[in-house]
Task: structure prediction
Amino acid sequence: MLAGAQWQCENKHSYDRAKAGYVNLLLANQKRSPEPGDSKEMIAARRAFLEAGHYQPLVNALAELIREHHFKPTLALFDAGCGEGYYLGKLVTLLSEPELAINAAGSDISKAAIEKAAKKYPHCQFAIASNFNLPVLNESQDVVLQVFAPGSAEETHRILTDGGLWLHVSPAEEHLAQLKAALYESPQQHSVDAELPTGFEEIKSTRLQFHFCLPELQIRRDLLLMTPYNWSVAEDALDSVLASMSEVGADFSVRVLRKCPKSEE
Ligand SMILES: C[S@@+](CC[C@H](N)C(=O)[O-])C[C@H]1O[C@@H](n2cnc3c(N)ncnc32)[C@H](O)[C@@H]1O
Result:
């Protein structure tokens, strides 16, 4: 369990971190495949694409939302399905100021992702774990971030403090539309889930849209490889798909949900 800045078992023993700086809390019987989650290749592609800064507007928007809605002098920030750690690492940098003590941690079901995250962001805690069984104490986190990862509203509710925030980012209707148009004859738009999970109130729901240029073929390959669309590309269609990606549109749905204090439930 994540308890403050340390991982502990239920008997309050500290948990050993691997030399690489993370703990593996995914039991063999919780795995549906030998290597669950994103593969090493997908994670390397995601790292290369994100480090190029194309999704920086999203990180800036998330930092702004936390500044707007979190007022305590301490911040326990948890990234559920954190991938290679980009959003968590960047948010710690953007939010750092002398008056705010940040305790940042993240988990992902992919070992390759957590290995990479722990190496690059040694000031954050990382664990290999499922979002459906988060290794985090009840009511211990002020903000839970979930970007393009599957998850459980019940688990998020369990680990948030009363009044804690859940920042939920998912693809909106036009996300990577150019890529989808090159791949499918009748591309389906993403549909955004507007349902309100039990025990939360929605304090904001916004859409963040912007375009970015990808002049180099390699970064287009990285973007393709980090998405599930990669599996839909026939070998003889790859060149034309990559050619369609010189300018791409991002479209994010960002929901800010607040855990209702017990007295209001
Ligand atoms: C699209 S990636 C997003 C990663 C990161 N949030 C980002 O935006 O860069 C989805 C991530 O969810 C992870 N994932 C998939 N199923 C999961 C689960 N059941 N529990 C935790 N993580 C999971 C994958 O390994 C992958 O890293």
In short: Strands lie at 2-3, 6-7, 23-24, 74-80, 101-108, 125-128, 141-147, 160-171, 200-213, 247-259. The two ends are 26 Å apart (CA to CA). The pocket of S-adenosylmethionine is lined by residues 37-38, 46, 81-83, 86-87, 108-110, 113, 130-132, 147-150 (CB under 6 Å).
